[in-house]
Amino acid sequence: MDLKLLLISTLLGVVCYSNAQKEGNECINANAKYCGECIQAGAKCGWCKDPGETVSTRCDEMESLIKRGCDKGMIENPRGEQRTLKNKAVTHRRKGADKLKPEDITQIQPQKLSLTLRSGEPQSFDLKFKRAEDYPIDLYYLMDLSYSMKDDLENVKNLGTSLMLEMSKITSDFKIGFGSFVEKTVMPYISTTPAKLLNPCTGDQNCTSPFSYKNVLRLTSDGKKFNTLVGQQHISGNLDSPEGGFDAIMQVAVCGEQIGWRNVTRLLVFSTDAGFHFAGDGKLGGIVLPNDGKCHLENNVYTMSHYYSLSSEVILENSKLPEGLTIAYISRCKNGVVSEGENGRKCSNISIGDEVTFSISVTSKGCPKKGKSETIKIKPLGFTEEVEITLNFICECECHKDGVKNSPLCHFGNGTYECGACKCNEKRVGRQCECSSNDVATEDMDRTCRKDNGTDICSNNGDCVCGTCECKKRDNPEERYSGQYCECDNFNCDRSGNKLCGGHGRCECRVCVCDPMWTGSACDCSLDNSTCMASNKQICNGRGTCECGMCKCTDPKFQGPTCETCPTCPGVCIEHKECVQCRAFGTGEKKDKCEKDCSYFNLIKVKDRDKLPQPNDASYPLMHCKERDANDCWFYYTYAVNNNTEKEVHVVDTLDCPTGPDIIPIVAGVVAGIVLIGLALLLIWKLLMIIHDRREFAKFEKEKMNAKWDTGENPIYKSAVTTVVNPKYEGK
Questions:
Q1: Which one, 200, 316, 385, 505, has least CB within 10 Å?
Q2: Would you say 581 and 588 are in contact if contact means Cβ atoms under 8 Å apart?
Q3: If we measure between CA atoms, which residue out of 323, 331, 330, 334 comes closest to residue 364?
C-alpha cells in the first residue's frame, strides 16, 4: 500500500511540475511570430534575433535563451523607464512667514512625469502630499433663513462670526463670503398668493419675501462687512418641511465668478435645521428637468429653482485610463498605517502640516492606443493641484527599425526580414513565407497539424509550417520533441528518486521502457529477490512476500528489511539490557566498549514513565521493559523498530533505586520499645504483687477468724512495757 502511494505521489508530482513549467512560461505560450509580439507577451520575454534560430524557439525567458546558446547581444529585451519632468518640493511654510501667492505653494510632488511602459512591467513612483500651513482658504457661509430657523437665528449669526475668528487663527490669507436660502418659489413649497409672496409669515411676524438662494456677500477679506450683513438677515417662510438647500449648494459650487472663488482650498459651511429636497421631489411642483450644473444667478439671486431638482455623487477618481492600463495604489499614512487596493487611494485624518506618501504603480498589458502617447492625471479630490503623467508604450523592438521590406531572404521578397526572422506579407505563410494561403487555406494547413482533430496545433510543442509540424527545441540538447504532431518527448516519463524512469530505463514517447529485471511505470520495481533473502536463506524469513525487491511482512509482529526483527518477542528486553544501561547511565558490563557494541539503536531519553511511548499511540510494535542493575536499581525503557526500519529506544533518564534504612527512627523506636516494655513489666509485677498481698491478707483474716485461742493471758507472754517506780516519789 505504501509503495503504491509513493508511486502515485511521484507521478502526480512529475505531472504537476511538467504542467506548471508549461503553463508558467507565458513567452512560449504566446507563440509569437515576430519580435514586437514577443515582448508584449510578458515582461520576462526576450527575442533571439540570431538567424540560426527557428521561429518557435526565438521567444522565451531571458535565462532560457542564454542557456540555449543565444548570445546576450543578440537578444531583444527593451525595458521601461521613467523620467521626472517637474519635481518642485512641497512647501514647508509656517504661519507668519513671508506671504506667498497661491500658485507658488506646492502641496503635491512630483508634478509632471513621463513613463515608458512595457507590457507587464510596472513603473512605480512615490507621490508626496502635504497640507501646507497658512495655505489660503476661501470659506463660504450658507445660511437657512426659513421660518423654522427663527429660534436659532441669533445662534446662527453668532456662528458665522465665530467661524471668521477661528479661521483667522489657521491662515493669514483668508476670505469669507455669505449666502442664504429658503425654498423653491413654486407651489406646493411656498404660498404663491400676492400677500404671502410679500410676507409669508402669519400674524404680526414681519418676514422677508421667499426666495431660493441669494449670494449676499461674495468672498472678501473685510470681516466687519461680513459681520454686519450676517446680523441684518431676517427669516422668511415656506410650506413644507424640507428646504431647497441643494439648489443653493449647486449654485455656490458652479458660480465661481460671482462667488469669487480662488484657486485655493475652498470650504462651504452649510447651516440648517431641516432636511433638503432630493432628486424627483420637484415633480410635485411640475419640475421634471434634472439640474444642469450651470450658474443661474441674476443680481446674486438664483432664478431657476422652479426648473431643476438636484442629485449628487462624490467620487475619488483619476482621469480615464486607456484600455489595458491599470494603476495600483499603496498609501502610507499617519501613524504608520499602510493600505492597499481601493483603500490605498486615501489617507484619513490629515491635518495641516501632515505629510503622507502614496506609492503608485502603472502597468500596461499589450500595446494600448496602438503605441500612441497618452496623458493621464492624478490629483487629490478637492484640490486643484495634480500630477500629469505622459505615457509612452513599447510596442516594437529596436531591431524593428532595421527591418528590410520585401527581403529576398523571405522567399523572393514575400515578407519583411526583421530581428532575424521573416514577417510575412499578407496571404503568405511559412517560416520563410514560402507558402501561399491562396493555394491552401491556413485553416486547412492547421488542420493537418492537429492530432485527432483536436484544438492544439502540433500539441503546443511545435509550429505548423505549411501543414507540417516542426517541433520546438529544448534548452537541454538531450531532451527533444518528436512524432508527427510533436506529441512525443523523451523527458516527460514517470520519475522515481528524482530520476527519469528511476535510472533503470529510457523514456520513449512519454512511456518508460525498462531495463531487464526492472518493471513498473517508473522502472522502480526490481524483479531481483536477493535483497529479500533472510539470514536463514528464506525469502522474507518466511513471514512476508517480496515485492519490487522489498519485503512486505505478513506477520504484524515482525519487521525490518527481511522480516527478521521482532521487537515484541520474549527475550528482547534481556537482549538489549546491557546496551541500554551503558548508553543511558554509563554503567553495566559493556560500559567500556559501549560505543563499539551498542550504537545500533537511537536512544531517546524521557523524564518519567508516563512519557514513554504506548502501544496504542505508535504505528509500529514496541516492547516495554523493566530491568534491574547491580545496585538493585530498576530502569525502564521501550524497544521498537520504527517505520523507517530504525531501532529506537526510549528510556527513563532516572533510576528507580531502593532507599537505605533511617537509623534515627529505628534507634528511637527500639529505645521507646524497651522503655515501654519495662514499664509494662513493672506494671504487671506490681499488679501481681498487689493481687498476692491481697490473697495473703485474706488468708490471714480467714485463719484469724477460725483460730480458737484462750482469751486469758498468755503464760509465755511478756509485756514489752517495764514499769519502774521511783521510791522517793510521793505522789505530789
A1: 316
A2: yes
A3: 323
